[in-house]
Queue: 2 jobs
Job 1
Amino acid sequence: MKLLEERILEEGQVRPGNVLKVDCFLNHQLDVALLDAIGEEFYRLFQADGITKILTIEASGIAIACMAARHFEVPVVFAKKAKSKNLDGEVYTSVVHSYTYGKDYDITLAQKFLTPGDTVLIVDDFLANGKAIQGLLDICQQAGATVGGIGVCIEKGFQPGGALLRKAGYKLASLAIVDSMSDDALTFRPQD
Ligand code: 5GP
């Protein structure tokens, strides 16, 4: 997606540990017009996949999921990172290793919000080693829900998450795939 690639080139900053900082438009300050275009693009890519629910993980995935949901006209449900006293009833849980914080955390989702009748579009901001998405896939499996697709804004193609998910047969769409990055250069994988 050209618009997203341009913004990454203009405002992205490469940080130690292969972290791409895009907090000007995606991770802290939010460019709603850009997010709207991202939501529309996910709709174009997954509209034929029978999506009944959009699933993401807090916090950065939520805005992306909401903008996509406006086009799909389905609910958004997000996995919570903190154990909340507010979650009533039974919950699905999974453990995710955080790329940016370097430690494991639990994710939780109330069982009533994901059922075997659902066909899910999983969305997130970044795909690196794939641990966050694997946690969401685990929750879909626990729920007996069908995974209709996975939509990611920025895939770091030099890390293994994307290749693993494609090999496992998932329909994965990454709107920008960064093939290499350093302090002074960043290249994207050509896409149709
Ligand atoms: P994974 O679980 O695929 O290894 O990493 C994906 C998760 O880690 C995303 O939810 C995102 O929050 C975070 N992440 C991974 N790499 C980056 C990065 O380069 N920049 C930012 N801002 N977040 C990242």
Job 2
Amino acid sequence: MAAESPVQDGVTSLTLPVLGMSCAACQLHVEQALKSAPGVTSAQVDLMRHRAHLSFDPSRINPDGIVQVIRDSGYDAVLPREGAGAAQDAPEEGRQGLKAALTLATGAVVMLLAMPVSMAEDAPMGAADHALMQLLPWLYNLPHMPLRWVLLVLTVAIAAWAGRPIYASAMRALGHGETNMNTLVGLGTAVALVSSAAETVAPWLNQPVYFDSVLLILGFLLLGKWLEGRARHSALAAIDTLAHLLPATARVRREIAGRPGEFAEVVVPLDEVHPGDLVMVLPGERFPVDAAIEQGRTTVDESMLTGESLPQERGVGDAVLAGSLNYDGAVAVRARSIGADTTLAQIARLVEAAQGSRAPMQRLADRASAIFVPVVLGLALVTFVVWLAVTHDAARAIASTVAVLVIACPCAMGLAVPAALTVAVGRAAQLGVLIKGGEALERLAGITALAMDKTGTLTQGKPELVSSTTLGGWPETSLLRMAAAVEDHSAHPLAHAVVAHAHGAGLRWAAATDVQVVPGRGLTGTVEGHECLLGNLELFADQFVPIPEAAEIAPPAAGVTRLWMTLDGKLAGYFDARDTLRARAAAFVAWLKDAGLSVTMLTGDSASAAGPIAAAAGVTDVAAGLLPADKVARIRAMQADGKRVAMVGDGINDAAALAQADAGLAMGAGAALAQEAGDALLLTDDLAGVVNAIALARATTRVMRQNLLWAAGYNVIGIPLAAGVLLPAFHLSLTPWMAAAAMAFSSVSVLGNSLRLRRWRSPI
Ligand code: ADP
Ligand code: MG
């Protein structure tokens, strides 16, 4: 995937990693800075992937200028290396665990060493001090002043090493008169450090000593970030496994240079395979490209791509997908699409874009985060002033102020929604459901009614001709041949039925001319010199070609779709086709009803064909004989009734209805993923996808709400507690390092809650 690609005249798009972001406030900050930079036309920052996507006018700003804009806002960015993906991790992340551990360990040692030192001369000894004195009496015999100097040097050294990115970011932002998340922690630890240093240098000032707190705060912060990084990686894992499905090389049959007509199998790197190449794939290997089988047969496992868990039989002419597993046959396949054009790559792109999108629920968190830092700075100031005025105790005032600065992190707030969204979209993809983004997901979760197409949705969409009847003296083979010649121009499932049947009868035909497809009706054309109309009764009514009601014409059997055919305006015969209900269709419909949804079938087929199928599936509300535009009108009417409607249909035929619905689910996508309409694409040819999409969307919005509530509640309770509001009455407050631990815990717990969705199981 190229990081930089021209989009259109004068606009270039760029994706680059952003370093040093810890929360939604950071994300908004970088995004704002980028958006207001001259020449940048759009910018979106992905907090889960720590990346910025932007488009810009290269005549007004260059990538280096963009990096500078990000640096000026207090963060850092690296330009992706040529040819490398933008996905490399921030180099700082790997060492964060070690840094956190060392800082926390030093903090603990310092705490221990400082215990006798920090004890005020006249203060009564606590139980902890007594215990410590028993255990490590030598600690109390250490000379106080030199020890303080040792602690000071140790703390400053470790803080400078571990906290450098934090201080650097805070300073850079300060240089531009701005504040960010790092300002809070930077200021908090700086206050503690300065106070402790002052006491060391000038003991008569009687300042409190907080060496341990400084290190523990930084340590917990780093620990939180490290855990967060790991959790973010797990959240993204679903899509990363997709990328690893491709083999690095392919065995291609190539003409031997200098010996025309002679071929040999050569192993080439994947990017040297071209469409049209003949590729050999052995049992147990994964297909390197999207291809069609040319020789051999096999069973393939597409579960990683489509969620379809059963192995699929594939023979000559059948399509196979890059990344799917070739089970048991050695096959030669002709490459169709390679690299970025494969279904696998398209899925990966769709999932990535969806994970990086903003869910509407995020807006609240964004708004809160934007004002968060200044508000907390204000609260910290108030805390300091009030404590100092009331108690005249600088130690008390500083402790509470530092605790407020440290506990108040909008990290959890910022991750609440994106973490859940990312995990859910990844999990959905594993189940063969591609959800298009946060908005789509929330719409899916909020639906109250479900409208579905019949052909291909409730039925398998592979109707078969069960009989053909000629009238007016045409031989059956001529009739079928002419019908096939016309239907050859249509991609409708019924057209496939006619063509397949004619092929099966060994017929051949010359292409029909002037073919016009009438959506929801049928088609017209010229074949062998005759005007031919083929379709349902409405087609003939529209075209003013009467269909006589003859006594010898039996009505179609229940559940059968009848295609009428006229030649030169005279009835020539009809074909009856039958589609089969999908396995478990009734179970899916039952689940949907249990989930409180009203289920409606909207079909272009006749009532006599649709009724029995609907009844078998348990759908009681059926509207038949609808044109695509009528389906749109039906959905509008349902919406006018106050229902929020999801439409399930095939993405091409029902695109308008999918777009009108509050949430559109396109079934059996696969061929042209990128162009498909709808909020979710179902890769499996199965209603299970519909159930999964809705159930997972509901579960996800639940998790999002829990996360937001938790993050908000944490701050609402944590900040006053840190400020020492409960101290006078209940002797309950948070020391600065406890505040840091709480903060780390809050963002990690939001991620942990979201990661539960990785193990989400289909309810059916
Ligand atoms: P559905 O809502 O079941 O997907 P469509 O809107 O695709 O149905 O088609 C409605 C009806 O129009 C079909 O049942 C059939 O009678 C007629 N029809 C559509 N396309 C064709 C075709 N290519 N050949 C014959 N009949 C067709
Ligand atoms: Mg249809």
